[in-house]
Fold:
Amino acid sequence: MTESDLPVVHLTPGRWGDPDHPVELPAAAVEALKHLGVRRPAGSPVDPEYRPGLTTAQLDFLASIVGPDHVTTDLDSRWGHTRGYSTPDLLRHRAGDTTDMPDAVVYPGSHDEVQALLAACCEEKLAVVPYSGGTSVVGGLAADRRFVTVDLRRLDQLVAIDEISRTATLQAGVRGPAAEALLAERGYTLGHFPQSYEGASIGGYAAARSSGQSSAGYGRFDQMVVGLTLATPRGTIELGRAPMSAAGPDLRQLVLGSEGAFGIITSVVVRIRPRPAERHFEGWRFENFEAGLAAIRRLAQDGPLPTVLRLSDEAETAVNLADPDVLGGGSGGVLAIVGFDGPYNAATARALTEAGGQNLGEGPGETWRVGRYRAPYLRDPLLDEGALVETLETAAFWSKLPGLKAAVTEALVKSLTEQGTPPLVLCHVSHVYETGASLYFTVISAQTDDPVAQWRTAKIAANHAIATAGGTISHHHGVGTDHRDAYAEEIGPLAVEALQAVKKVLDPDNIMNPGILLTSS
Amino acid sequence: MTESDLPVVHLTPGRWGDPDHPVELPAAAVEALKHLGVRRPAGSPVDPEYRPGLTTAQLDFLASIVGPDHVTTDLDSRWGHTRGYSTPDLLRHRAGDTTDMPDAVVYPGSHDEVQALLAACCEEKLAVVPYSGGTSVVGGLAADRRFVTVDLRRLDQLVAIDEISRTATLQAGVRGPAAEALLAERGYTLGHFPQSYEGASIGGYAAARSSGQSSAGYGRFDQMVVGLTLATPRGTIELGRAPMSAAGPDLRQLVLGSEGAFGIITSVVVRIRPRPAERHFEGWRFENFEAGLAAIRRLAQDGPLPTVLRLSDEAETAVNLADPDVLGGGSGGVLAIVGFDGPYNAATARALTEAGGQNLGEGPGETWRVGRYRAPYLRDPLLDEGALVETLETAAFWSKLPGLKAAVTEALVKSLTEQGTPPLVLCHVSHVYETGASLYFTVISAQTDDPVAQWRTAKIAANHAIATAGGTISHHHGVGTDHRDAYAEEIGPLAVEALQAVKKVLDPDNIMNPGILLTSS
Structure:
């Protein structure tokens, strides 16, 4: 009933998964891909070529700060820190594309070492890419010039727990499972389970405004953070003397989501909660997506909310359910997953029933729970088979969601069909608020000869549809480089200028993640 | 059971109250003041003297934008817009002190007129003080140079309601009661009831990060805002395409709390909720403040939270209760107020009983509800009698609250006793979070010959104690000028520089509320 019964996995560079636990596509899926015109590509992955990095003097300088054991320049290490896990990233990885490869990887052991590293990199005019879990899917690890990657994995401590205030101070390099394990020893949970949970880290959650699968019960990561420490090239900023304050703007919310452009978040103080004694996950069926959307809106607005609440549309329900009988003998409909940390809440179930839902019991709920981090693992074998598969997401107010869903789906279908590769587009809602919700799309089609360009075209069409239909360019993936232009359009030129001005103060030499979030000025 | 059974009042310049509804101190209170050495001051209020303001050309320019009927320069109008309602403000008002008096008051009728006014004021190098409800108690209406006040009262519309998303678009000049009345017509409530409710406005709530008495149930105002429009001297910024987003920092939280330093918030989109059919307010008794604090922490951390939750300490309980028998025949103890919008929640009551609370029934709850906006009205007759009376507030994490309360109390007692005026210091908690809570202090002593300087000395001591004991300089009053130095110390010089840089982008001529929030650079 906890996360600890799931196998421990490790992400591998260029593949979302663990070579020791290969994931194979079901034969039926391989068959289904043929209907999309998917064909296994002829080429094999290309090995990356080594290219020289920093000077010896520069490396000695970095080593003088973190120690020689904590500076690496070998190809494996550098290639393993190249880009993240978007489909274009994986495709470029397979092509052996070494643009975006760091010149060195350094592993500081403390906040002070991070601070000293930033000063050193300023002096040497070296760009810095902060690296926490490395799980960006928006091009968040590809600076616009040569750079040093600062990998925070040695900042892996639970620094303090305040049991009276129910807060914990966690260093940026603590990964999701480690955070839960450290807190579990004291009887607590953070309750943050994004799909990248196995690989992502506290610092990345904070820098990219992460949201987890239990957001209905625990909130987003930015709602869990009550304090943070930011190392900038100009010095350290510490924020958060109280849960909430009227002392000026909430500057924590200016650092959360800054994606390394202002500095490196080295630790955060997060709200923690007692570890639940029990958990329950159920499947619920609704006649169609519209009916399911009305039901989850009712829970979001009038309660009581469960801990996990997600709703697949018809297409995703049909594709993702291994056993179509689960919805009642192939009668169609859509699947919702409802999860409770703690006792089962009968009032939630009553509200869902009143809204037309049919309780499918714990079977589909447990199936989802056990496979909850597995979906991204399917992407690698799908790419192996020659499919293009990628996800994107947005959020909007409830009244705009139906139009937004239709517009994004239409844009993706139109763009990919025009390219000769008609896609399958699946959608679900996985984060709800009183005033709106997120939409998460999965797109599958055959690859063209240039799948990177193919997806770029489709993505631009989707971004345009999101903007036109009134959605935000990202609900939980972040901006990176992939959404930078759309983000600038979303907040407008004056707000961009304001952010650039903040960056200029904290990072006057523009060494911090240049080109991520904001264009380099 | 709603706010509509309370008398409608209007704030008067220089007095918190309505001349038609004068508040008199109970005879027992007047008697009690003698024990503090309070003596009725000899002098009478001084009338302000007229001094010339803008040139005719400047006034014509402003009138060309808003119309001649919407520019005023008479003494009454200017004096009525001079400062806010802190005790030093009231004392200076009584002294006829016309520093901080605006040179003109303009009343724009639309966002576009606000935008045009800011452009005009840039051109004429006129400073601008935005004026919404005028209820600042932190010197938020006293620019550091001569200025024009932009009074937003004509922006009084409920622009739109989105019933599916449960959001309302309200203009900045809508006052608290008007907002509730407009929403009530459609069956909704905002649920925001700060003590300044009768006078304060939507724009001020937003600009100063207001928090209301029902914050346990409805959240703070900054948690209600999902979108906003800001007019800056450089142009308009519109924020909020979704309830939450991972597209960069949450810039709404950079504008909320900016106190007019970046521009004028002309409208906000807020979350609304169905108007409750019933309300319940109860008094609860705890043995002492410590026991009460443990009980409300339990509700804040483990639930279920009521809508209103506040706890007075021993001193405040003793002073504020008209009838000491309410706590059980003068046996001491402390009073908590617990309020529910909607059905009474027996689970909350059970948790309070388990935590040692004794239910005093609806009597003390209703007494509090009916008098909930009345406390500030007592200040004027207290000042008339020669008492110094002022409030200040802070917030911190739960583990720091006892030390913070002791430190602030000690600092105030020490400072005022050293000045020959030993005070009474009362305290309550009125806003709770999972990780911490607010502390609100009321201070009463005799006045010295220079009560403004007397309070300044005490306030500096309190600010120092807050910083040392780990609290934030304001939980819901804001920064203004009174907290500006303490605020700069709280966030540190780098963060101040970042805010200054944002201001420089949006307000390059430093016309917006100069000296408020940030020192003029």
